[in-house]
Specification:
The chain is mainly alpha-helical and 335 residues long. It is 79% helix and 0% strand.
Length: 335
């Protein structure tokens, strides 16, 4: 009988010692579930970024490999893309009945601030590195909005981001052909910008949008088809260009590649609290701020004989570095 009581007492004590663990098991289960969910969310985010960037990098890689094994002069193709395909895409987006310019005023102002602000911040930095401002400042201001920006924004946020992406492309192009060329040569005639097909397509597209004029489907179908060629062709062309990278001036190229997204991000952080942007527009502006230098910086530097080899290194290494910086920016934008 005594032994039975002792056994019952031991069982009672054991049950008391185990009861807290049993009571806390639901909390542990919830914590484990949250940790698993967080891990799953991170994996889904990484996969989402990969899903966005893979088509872009794949087309760029095809262009790079083709250019390496089949040396190709892309000047004519690039000219067609700038004069035909990109203006067709611009008109197609801006003339769409869903495009309302009043919804993008703050975004347009922010884009101008980022371009000009990046240049102002870059000016003293170039002096510190003992570089010529005409060599370094333009690549810090004018980014690859066409070849890289439009495709990334389209794949990341869908067709709803396309009007904003095209608008940023138009603003960046307009500033590049005015402020950018003026930095390189004070004898530049700004009214020559009106001769650009991109600007003409913008003006006509905005006029159609303001007047609520419906373009006949008979005309819009071929325009849309031409515009659809713009994104893949610009990516392919970028890949071919990357094959011409010159590592002679790799140090200045690395400086520019690091400075470009940092300066844009700094301006973005400074102006963001003062702007009334939708969440989508804020994400778009963040990507715009960290884009790599535009390839056209090299073309203008060659035209004005402003150390084109150094500018080429800044542009090409900057675009290669964007394969690291853009996934990071997308990670913040997609959270």
């Amino acid at each position: 009988m005594l032994a039975m009581n002792i056994n019952m007492t031991r069982k009672f004590r054991i049950s008391l010692s185990l009861s807290p663990a049993k009571a806390s098991s639901p909390g542990r289960s919830i914590q484990a579930g949250l940790e698993a969910l967080a891990g799953t969310t991170e994996i889904m985010l990484i996969y989402r970024i990969f899903e966005i960037l893979f088509p872009i990098f794949a087309i760029v890689l095809v262009g790079y490999l083709y250019g390496r094994y089949r040396p190709t002069d892309m000047s004519i193709t690039n000219r067609i893309a700038i004069d035909i395909f990109a203006p067709a895409l611009t008109f197609s987006v801006l003339s769409n009945k869903s495009f309302d310019p009043s919804h993008y005023q703050q975004l347009a102002i922010a884009a101008v601030c980022i371009v000009l602000g990046s240049g102002l911040l870059a000016w003293p930095v170039t002096r510190w590195f003992n570089l010529h401002p005409k060599t370094m400042v333009p690549p810090m201001m004018f980014t690859n909005t066409g070849n890289m920006g439009i495709p990334i924004l389209f794949f990341a946020f869908g067709e709803s981001a396309l009007p904003a992406a095209v608008l940023l492309f138009v603003i960046a192009t307009g500033l590049h052909f005015t402020v950018g060329t003026y930095i390189l040569s004070h004898q530049t005639r700004w009214w020559n910008i009106l001769k650009l097909p991109m600007i003409q397509a913008t003006v006509v597209g905005l006029w159609v949008s303001f007047c609520h004029f419906k373009v006949p489907d008979l005309l819009m179908k071929p325009i849309n088809m031409l515009g659809d060629c713009a994104i893949p062709l610009m990516l392919f062309s970028l890949g071919v260009r990357l094959g011409d990278i010159d590592l002679t001036h790799w140090k200045i190229g690395m400086v520019g590649a690091i400075l470009r997204p940092l300066l844009g991000l700094l301006v973005f952080l400074l102006i963001r609290p003062w702007l009334e942007l939708t969440p989508l527009q804020a994400h778009i502006l963040l990507i715009f701020a960290v884009l790599p230098p535009a390839v056209f910086n090299y073309i203008l530097a060659e035209q004005y004989q402003q150390e084109p080899h150094k500018v080429a290194a800044i542009v090409m290494i900057g675009n290669l570095m964007s394969f690291i910086t853009l996934p990071i920016a997308l990670g913040f934008a997609l959270r």
